[in-house]
Amino acid sequence: MSGEWTLAPRARTSAGQEAGRARIPSLWREEPETANSSDRGRTVTSRALAILGAFTPEHPELTLAQLCRLTGLRHATAHRLVGELTTWGALERVASGAYVIGLRLWELGTLNPRGLPLRVRAMPVMEDLHAATQQHVQLAVLDGTDALVVERISASGAVPVVSGVGGRLPLHASAVGQVLLAHAGAELFTEVVRGGLDRFTPRTVTDPVALRVALAECRRTGAAVVREEMSPDAYSVAAPVTDAKGRVVAAVSVVGTEARTHLLVPAVMLAGRGISRGLGSGDGT
Predict the structure, then answer these.
(1) Are 273 and 283 contacting, i.e. CB atoms less than 8 angstroms apart?
(2) CA distance 94 to 161
(3) Distance (Å, rounded) from C-alpha 84 to C-alpha 80?
(4) 0.85 exceeded by the pTM?
(5) How many C-alpha atoms does 4 have within 13 Å on its Cβ side?
């Protein structure tokens, strides 16, 4: 029955008795569509993922009505799937009646090698960098055509930044993004340019040729410097983090003011090499 655990028969014993039954949540089973369904053509899995994907750093708490509007799901469908996701632990219901992402997803997320293990290795180095610069320090990894911030140490009174842990930064307009893009290969560069280079400030590089030059300079020097391309008065320096095979798996950066930018380059590059050594990289370059 829809919305409940379903039973699938397993092998019987030689005595003809059931050896047991496997319980599989109906959430992950395909369901027939009704003739008048507005959800026609969407699998149960895609609907469940659409619900989870509706949550963002800007909207971490959503009501059932908001989920219906954002996903295009019928109320009955959303209500059933939200209930099953909540039972499983992917969602949690708060006192207001709205829903937030559940701890079960956070638990699974820690298993990603670019998540918690990377952060554990990077945190001591990031703390040293933060103590030396008294500016924001952040760690980001490549996710699709974005830089995903997986860790950040904030500084009180420092220049405002637009990203937080779990937030995304454009590859072309952020220092961590340029480092990741510079070492990702030509295919990703083509994809990013094809999608359009958004302008965030008057200083944002939106010309593909100029961006290609900046990425080449990043590879040559080992660092990317971004000057007010994401937000006014924000200057960022980033350096690559490599793993034991020499692959760039992350970027570490400091976001500060113009007066300190030239002082940050050696410190950030040293931090990148330090994190890289923690990941087994021979020389951290």
Answers:
(1) yes
(2) 29
(3) 6
(4) no
(5) 4
